Structures are given as C-alpha cells and as structure tokens.
C-alpha cells in the first residue's frame, strides 16, 4: 500500500494566474520593487550604508526591518544609513522599502559579529586578488557575465579556515562555486553546494603562507542581482545539532557539530571532541539547553523556505557564544528519543513508545534505522519524517512492516506537489497515515534513498510518530504582485492569498481572523471549508488610516456544530450561526507571511517572512461590495432568506460604487478563493449599472460546512494622454454555510435547449428527497434575485406533496425574451417544513433563445 502525504494543497492555477501576474493595481500606482540591497549585511553594533536599486523607487522614504532597535537614515541616491544595535543576534533578517506608493517585498539582510569589508575592483584574476583578513565577511558581486572574483588571505599551518559563500540564502541569483588555490596556482579545494546550493570549504591550512579564493557563478552568469557574502573564518561555526528537537519546557542536552568549536568558550557547559573520517570532519561540543530556552520563538533569524513553515512556530534559535550564527532547534510536546547506534537491523530494532519524536542519524552508506512499537487493532498513527526540511542532505523513506520484517504494510511518499507555482511547497520528506490491522508488534524503518558511498554526519533526521491529532500551518502571500508587500488603497480593499498546509488528518474547517489591527484597518474573518486549502483574506483601509502598520492573523480549527451533517437538517434561526471564541483546547496557529523572492525561475522561489507589514497608499477609483444573503421575494412565501445546501445556487450580488460618480465603466467579475469542487463563474456589469450577480452552483458532492469567497472585479480606465489601464479591485469576503440537503433538483437532460420567441415548452424535472425529508416542495422558474417574474419568460409553478418527486413546468418564451444563451435561468424548489419555507434546491435550465 502506498500512502500519500497528509499535506493536501489544491492548485487553482486559473484564478491564481488571473491576478498574481497582473501588473495593474487598484490605485493605478506601482509599488516599489527592490531588486538589490547592497551590501546585503552589516555588523552588530555598527552602522552601514546600503544602496537600494530596482524599479519604482522614486520617493523611497525609508527602510523597515524586524531587527530589534534598528534605525534607518535616508541619504541620497537610494542610499540609507542603517544602524544595528550592539547585541543583536547574528543571523538573517528582513528589510522592506517604503515609498509614497507603498511597500516593497522584503529583502534578506544578514547581521554578523565579524569585521565587514566590501569587494573592490579590479579583482578578476589571481594576480589582482584583493588581500583580505581572516575572520571577516566580504560583500561582493559577480556583476557581469563570466565575471570572477579573487581574494588572497594568509594563514598558518594547521589552522582550520572555513570559507563559506552566502548567496541563495540572502535572495541572490548567484549559483556560487568556491575554489581555494595556493600561490603556485594549484587547486586545493572546491565546492559547489553545501548548505543547499551555497558552497562551503573546510580548509585545513597545509603550510604557512598565502592562499587564493576564487568565486564565480556555476554557469558564468552575472548581474547586479548576483551578489554574495563571503565568510573567511577561524572562529566557531555550528552546522547542526543532535538531537535536533527537544521537549518543550524541559532542560535538555544536545551535541553541536561544527568547526572550531573549542574556541567558543562553552567548554564549561559540556565536552568537546573532534571526529575525523574519510568524508567529514566535525568538532562536537555538548551543551545544556535550559528549560526556559526550550520554547518556540518567532521570528527566527534564519531562512525558512515554504515547506519549512511547520518549523516556524515550533523552533528556537540556539546561539553558541562566539559563533557566526544560531542553529534552529525544534520543540515538541512529546518525549524525544535518540536513536541507538546499533538499531540497524530488524533483530536489533529499538523499542519506542507512541507518541514520540525520534532524532537520529544515517551517517554511513545505506544505513537503516529500525524501531519497534506495540499497537492495537484500529489504532491510527500519523508518521512524518523531517530531512530536507531540516537542511539534511537526505531523501528519506519510511516504511511499516510486520514483526518479522518480511511483509511491508505501508510506505510513505514525499510531498512532491507544488501548491502555488512561484511559491513552491513541495519537498522530499515522507508522511502519512497508518491504521493498525491487528494487535501486536510492528517494525518501523527509516532510510535515505541517496545515502551515497561515504560517511556524512550531516545526514540527520527527525521522525514524528503521533496518534491522529490534526494540525495545520497557514501562510499568507500578497496577491496583487509577486514583488510587493500588502499595499491597500485609501478607502479601498486589498487581497492576500491564504495557503493551508493540513497535517495529521485535519479535514475540517479553519477560521482565520485578525488581531491587534492598526487603527483604520479592517480585516473580516474568512473560512477555509472542509478540505479547502486556499482562501482569500481581504484587508481594507479607511481614508484616515496610518500609512504603515502590521497585519497579524491567527487560524483556528473550528467546525460549526450545526453543520456537522450528523444532526437534523432543520435550519437554525441564523443563516450564519455564531461561533464561540477560540478556547485553549482549540488548534490555533499564527498565520505566517510569505514572499516571492525572484520571478522567472522555473520551479518558483519563495520564502517565509518574519512579519506581514502593510502600507496604505493611493486611492481606489471604485469599490465593489458582495452580498450572498439577499432576501428573495416569493409570491407564495413572501420574503425568503435562502439557505444553501449541496445542489443549489449561491447567488452573490455585486454592488459597484464609483468614487467619481460621473465615471461609469463596465466591470468584469469573477470569484476567487472558491472551494475546489465549485466551478468558477463570471459576469459583466454593463456601464451605468451599479449591480450584478455572480452565481455559483454548489455541487451535490460539496461537503457540509462553512466557506468564504471573494469577488474579483476589474475595469479599464483611460487616463488623459495614456493608454487604457486595467484596474483590479476586490469585494469584501462572503461567508456562507452549506447545510445538509433535503432534496436534489435535476432538470431532465433531454429537455429542449434551443427555443424561439413565442414557443411554449414543457420542462420535466425531478426533486429527489434526501435525509428523510417528506415535506411539501414547490418549484418555480427563477434567475438570481428573482422568482417567477423572470423577464422574457412565463412559467407556472408546481407543488409536490406526499412522496411525489417528479413533475413538469410549462414555460412560455415571450416575444421580448433576450436572445442568446440564458446562463442564469434555473428551476428553484422550496421545501416546506411545518408550513415554513426552510429548504432550497436548484437546477440550471440552459435555454438558448434564437430568432
């Protein structure tokens, strides 16, 4: 049996492409785009002058950052003086640019505790190599095609010099290659990728003297966006830890692996030793993690890719004194187990109790770790492995076998689906669900499919074994433009895409809500219905809102009791029942920010951001408001509040309000953030009209639950002396409940479709009763917002009593019937319970009126 990962993410490419790659905006103004911020880092306790380059940078006023105590002074020519406080933890932080037109997307800014220098040209040959000191950071650029940078340093025999290039991790396009030569030109070391694609060389100095470092791009590319930071370091540097996860709030001991760790001054906290084999050379030092430190911390001063969202709210940075950067360590609420060194066969399998987190290592070639658990028939287990997501060079495989290790019961696959083109969430870590078939003992084994022939201590893993305890992560991305932040027009609205990564079997609804909103900013709740993985959040700004702020969102798994499908389908008094505030027992997670790092990459390039800043800039020429709960006038039952269920239409009324009342253009509308099962629809509100409808059919297979959607509107405006410009706006979110259906209405598929004015046709249909409903049903001809009195058509309604389920309506095509396909025409059935109209169902009647 092959199990798919529990990370389930739908790909809604049509709607995504509709706006994510559009260049228009609600304000007609383009936000700033910072392509390069150089240098891309500075030293804690000092000031550094950086230059921002990109597009739409006129009026760039300020740089914002999540660096604690950060100060920014605007100079000239796109230059800014940044002051970094003493004591800031080294690592990676975010910088945003703010102009009159809003905020840019963030750029990564590195903070070090080493001396900082900048590359000077010319240095494109070994003879022109720049002399640089040890224990320093060089900020450089491969700024043209085939460019090469050379540096020279001096060191003494036996010194361990770590040469590391930071490029991809700081948003650079550089695919760096590092080489070390002696002064005679002999190449002594080369590396093309150590931390991902960023290279590192662990150089043992063979003799006193000078050495040359060469930096180039793998394919000889070059531009201003091919910048880098080059560390030449003899100080302590931590690569990883074992265990890589500790129990929350408990004192623990972990072993750090790295280089020059004996220089850290932390020997009093543990012991240090050196490992030396034919593949990897690491120092080790054991340190104590205090209970107060073993708690999640956010933001982390490290780079996190989209698949690493699960680590964002369950890790903390451990900083070894004197080292160059912190190492993230995970936290968990369950016991942490270290794998034994002799558990490499079924007969020596290590016994573990569930739930737990196993932290282990697959250092040698083709190594497999075996574990054994006791399980009872029907028990459900969720297994999830972490390898690639903790920066380990492995492609893990997890299997469940019988007690003898002869019969495979389950094998878990990687998450290879990409949820959002330019923001890739795919990874090579397996996960899945296993149901125990019988009481007894079972074996679990974990291995790497790319073990290789050499020993590598970096091949660590984390294996999470839980019972079925649902969980999720949420990521928010600005929808409008890949390279901007959240920019809201004054008096208008802006949209952000919401991506849910469901874990451990979570299928229910998720409610997302704002907290601590800045004054003048509004953000209504939105719902991701059962199994839904994408939604759209709307943020609006009043005209007096401050120009800068921060958006904070939380998500909580919260099904609506009235909609669980287990109770009677009788409607409650409220169309949208109220939901209690989240309790401590609810699954609650913060929404993480996300950004597109660079466009034009074949597999997408995104990362997690430290926060979600927002800017209020410009004005919106129009505003659209959506309403899916309009009262419906019925000639038999008076004013009706429609109750939605599978097999019915959701009619969304769209109201258009122009800022300039004299301007009346056509507005095209389409839904965004729809459940995957709901087919998208469009409508066009003609010039001069202020209202239209977008109608969505809720298919019979749609799960009962609460959902939200948004209407995307766009229009073309002709500015004086300019070409027509497409303006995009968004409605308020529309939240609606889908109740259990009482019946399913279906028009006979053989009904005549092409009709002429003056024709009289007979439309046969069925209303199949469901969920024990036996009440009266009345069917009429309808269009969005209107029943019976449909312009151009005349139909007489019909009532079912008893067990009747089939009938026919006679419809007259009037002489003024509009020509063409009648996409909104339908049969509407109202179900009556205790003489009250309670249930609704619809079926499309796709007539085409011809001459």
From TrEMBL:
Residues 1-22 form the signal peptide. Keywords: Signal. This is Peptidase C-terminal archaeal/bacterial domain-containing protein.
């Amino acid at each position: 049996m092959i199990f798919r990962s529990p990370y389930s993410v739908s790909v809604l490419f049509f709607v995504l492409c509709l706006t994510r790659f559009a260049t228009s905006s609600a304000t007609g103004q383009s936000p700033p785009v910072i392509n390069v911020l150089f240098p891309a880092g500075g030293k804690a306790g000092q000031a550094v002058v950086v230059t921002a380059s990109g597009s739409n940078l006129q009026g760039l006023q300020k740089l914002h950052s999540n660096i604690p105590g950060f100060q920014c002074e605007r100079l000239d020519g796109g230059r800014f003086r940044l002051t970094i406080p003493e004591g800031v933890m080294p690592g990676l932080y975010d910088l945003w640019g703010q102009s009159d037109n809003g905020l840019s997307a963030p750029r990564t800014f590195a903070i070090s505790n080493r001396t900082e220098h900048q590359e000077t040209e010319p240095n494109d040959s070994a003879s022109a190599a720049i002399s640089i000191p040890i224990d320093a950071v060089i900020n450089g650029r491969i700024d043209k095609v085939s460019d090469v940078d050379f540096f020279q340093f001096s060191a003494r025999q036996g010194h361990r010099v770590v040469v590391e290039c930071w490029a991809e991790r700081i948003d650079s396009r550089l695919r760096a290659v590092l080489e070390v030569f002696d002064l005679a030109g002999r190449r002594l070391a080369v590396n093309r990728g150590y931390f991902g694609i960023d290279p590192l060389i662990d150089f043992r100095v063979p003799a006193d003297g000078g050495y040359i470092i060469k930096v180039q791009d793998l394919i000889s590319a070059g531009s201003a966006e091919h910048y880098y930071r080059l560390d030449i370091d003899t100080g302590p540097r931590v690569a990883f830890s074992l265990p890589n996860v500790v129990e929350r709030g408990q004192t623990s001991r972990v072993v750090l692996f790295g280089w020059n760790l004996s220089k850290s001054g932390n020997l009093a906290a543990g012991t240090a030793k050196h490992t030396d084999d034919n593949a990897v050379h690491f120092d080790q030092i054991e340190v104590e993690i205090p209970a107060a430190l073993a708690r999640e911390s956010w933001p982390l001063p490290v780079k996190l890719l989209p698949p690493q969202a699960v680590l964002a709210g369950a890790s903390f940075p451990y900083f070894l004194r004197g080292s160059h950067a912190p190492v993230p360590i995970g936290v968990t609420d369950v016991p942490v187990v270290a794998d034994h060194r002799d558990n490499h066969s079924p007969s020596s399998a290590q016994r573990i109790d569930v739930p737990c987190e196993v932290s282990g290592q697959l250092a040698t070639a083709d190594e497999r770790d075996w574990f054994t658990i006791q399980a009872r028939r029907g028990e459900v287990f969720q297994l999830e492995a972490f390898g690639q997501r903790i920066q380990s060079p492995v492609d893990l495989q997890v299997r469940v076998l019988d007690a003898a290790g002869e019969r495979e019961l389950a094998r878990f696959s990687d998450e290879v689906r990409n949820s959002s083109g330019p923001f890739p969430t795919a990874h090579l870590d397996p996960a899945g669900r296993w149901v125990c078939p019988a009481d007894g003992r079972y074996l679990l084994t974990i291995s790497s499919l790319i073990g290789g022939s050499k020993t590598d201590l970096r091949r660590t893993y984390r294996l999470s074994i839980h019972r079925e305890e649902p969980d999720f992560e949420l990521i928010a991305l600005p929808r409008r433009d890949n390279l901007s932040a959240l920019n809201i027009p004054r008096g208008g609205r802006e949209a952000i895409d919401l991506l849910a990564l469901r874990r451990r079997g979570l299928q229910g609804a998720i409610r997302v809500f704002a907290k601590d909103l800045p004054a003048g900013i509004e953000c209504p709740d939105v719902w991701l219905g059962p199994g839904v993985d994408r939604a759209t959040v709307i943020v609006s700004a009043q005209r007096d809102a401050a120009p800068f702020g921060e958006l904070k969102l939380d998500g909580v798994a919260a099904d609506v009791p009235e909609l669980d499908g287990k109770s009677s389908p009788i409607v409650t008094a409220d169309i949208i029942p109220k939901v209690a505030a989240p309790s401590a027992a609810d699954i609650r997670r913060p929404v993480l920010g996300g950004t597109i790092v660079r466009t034009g990459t074949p597999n997408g390039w995104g990362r997690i951001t430290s926060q979600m800043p927002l800017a209020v800039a410009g004005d919106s020429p129009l505003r659209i408001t959506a309403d899916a709960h309009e009262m419906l006038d019925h000639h038999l039952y008076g004013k009706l509040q429609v109750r939605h269920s599978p097999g019915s239409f959701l009619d969304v009324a769209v109201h258009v309000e122009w800022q300039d009342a004299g301007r009346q253009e056509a507005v095209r509308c389409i839904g965004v953030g729809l459940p995957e099962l709901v087919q998208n629809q469009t409508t066009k509100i003609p010039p001069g009209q202020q209202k239209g409808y977008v109608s969505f059919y809720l298919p019979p297979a749609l799960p009962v639950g609460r959902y939200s959607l948004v209407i995307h509107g766009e229009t073309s405006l002709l500015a004086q002396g300019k070409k027509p410009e497409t303006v995009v706006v968004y409605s308020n979110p529309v939240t609606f409940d889908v109740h259990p259906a009482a019946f399913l209405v279906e028009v006979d598929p053989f009904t005549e479709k092409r009709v002429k004015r003056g024709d009289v046709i007979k439309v046969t249909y069925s209303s199949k009763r469901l969920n024990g409903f036996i009440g009266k049903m009345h069917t009429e001809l309808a269009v969005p917002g209107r029943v019976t009195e449909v312009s151009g058509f005349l139909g007489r309604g019909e009532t079912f009593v008893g067990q009747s389920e089939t009938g026919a309506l006679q419809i007259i095509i009037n002489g003024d019937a509009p020509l063409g396909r009648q996409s909104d025409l339908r049969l509407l059935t109202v179900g009556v319970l205790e003489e009250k109209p309670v249930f609704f169902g619809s079926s499309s009647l796709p007539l085409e009126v011809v001459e």
